[in-house]
Amino acid sequence: xxxxxxxxxxxxxxxxxxxxxxxxxAAPPAPTLLWPANGDTKVVTPVDFEWAPVPGVTxxxxxxxxxxxxxxxxxxxxxxxxxxxAVVPPGRRYGWVxxxxxxxxxxxxxxxxxxxxxxxxxxxxxxxxxxxVVVDARATWTDTGVDLGSTNLxxxxxxxxxxxxxxxxxxxxxxxxxxxxFVAGPNRPLSPLPSAPFMALLGRxxxxxxxxxxxxxxxxxxDLGSGRLYLTVNDDYRSDNLGVFYVDxxxxx
Length: 253
Prior knowledge:
The chain has 2 domains: 86 residues, Sandwich (Immunoglobulin-like), CATH 2.60.40; 131 residues, Jelly Rolls, CATH 2.60.120.430. It is 11% helix and 40% strand. It has 2 helices and 17 strands. The radius of gyration is 23 Å and the shape is globular.
């Protein structure tokens, strides 16, 4: 009886190992696209393409194609390990799709999304581009490395953030830089700016400056003071947040 039980246990163990090996060798599932949002017609170029990481995958293939008359034509494509940055002309519409790859082959294609590109309002005004800053939703305050001095600064932001990891079921698509439709307080009185929308992009001038609302776009005039520009999200507990905002900084001539 003991021998029979040992043989059965061994057989079950071998079967589980075989099933695990087959699972490990399976081709990956299709990636889930994150950014740009489907149908967004005001995506600033260059475009940061993002998708959710697929477990066990280190290589992706992305294809961006022009949807304007005379298309579709390939606008950008390439292998990448995570996100992908593409310089595509403004004022046009594009589609995009991503495949994931592991040792067993390629995944099915992701959904196909489309978006339209535009110039930021500050570029249309002829302001000089300074730099692009990534604001991690988990960071307390992000030092942009840019100072507000004798000329105004312009901020243009995009991206998505989540107030919890994993994403909270009440906010399945997260929030853009404009934040939620409700203010952070009184439920979150310790937020940097309780009177501003929850999870909105905020700024301050100097390490001890008063926070102000940035949202999607903001002109930072010199009367805000002089000093280093810092950015954050309007949340009282950031360590479990997810996602980033991208912020392009411009300086008025």
